[in-house]
Predict the 3D structure of the following.
Amino acid sequence: MLTVKSDPAEAPAGTQTLLRGLATIEAVSHGATTLPLISAAIGCTRSTTHRLVMALVVAGYIKQMPGLGYVLGPKLIELGFCAREQLPLPTVARPYMGKLADDTQDTVHLAEAEGGEVFYLDKIPGKRGMEMRSRIGFRMPLAFTGVGKALMLDMPEEHWKSLYEEGLSRRVAPANTFTWEAFRARMTDYREQRCAFDLEENETGIRCVAAPIRDVGGKIVAAISVSSATHLMPPERMNALRSVVVSVAESISRDLGWTKGRAGPT
């Protein structure tokens, strides 16, 4: 929660009221529904808190609801949608993708789900001279790519099976294929690890490590992955990359408004 400096001299001139107003909004967002609770949260007297709250109510940032007390107002919903429009996912993710590509020297993908397919939103090629089929705007079956499996982690098992079967029916290239039982076991493990692997299921000779990106409500909206040649992706390196890719995915998620612990259904 935003904190407010107790000594006005410590803050630049004219910012103390602004900081207190922002702290008031955050206090309400964290469940402070009455003036005493808001006052305690922001460290102001009740009279000062009342003036701040009334100004924010008039401006639409806070609303008083019968039986509920103070809640966030419609102005914040409007601003939230504006923020999402001004910061599309590829723009938010690009700096993180660039650093991940530099750190690993491997190809980094950003993708979202469209029906039963992966849709590639962005790609940064690796620096090892590897060529892959994937490209921006390309589509592939969800169940046989790393980013696709990461996008599936919150889905119920019956959806896993239908996507697995759909993917099998569309296979056009020889690649590693697991039985449904093996696929289900791997997906269960991936869900627990918050990270998924592609073990040459999509393209022979290519492995990848992927993790889901979540929005403010905890819903998986995209996934990010690191891909490279099989000889550069032994099991030891893939396991070591789990925490790295998950950390990057969580950083992007936080920029989308997600907070740790807020996840979709399992």
In short: Residues 8-83 form a domain with the Arc Repressor Mutant, subunit A fold (CATH 1.10.10.10). The chain has two domains: 8-83, 87-255. Residues 3-9 have pLDDT under 50 and may be disordered.
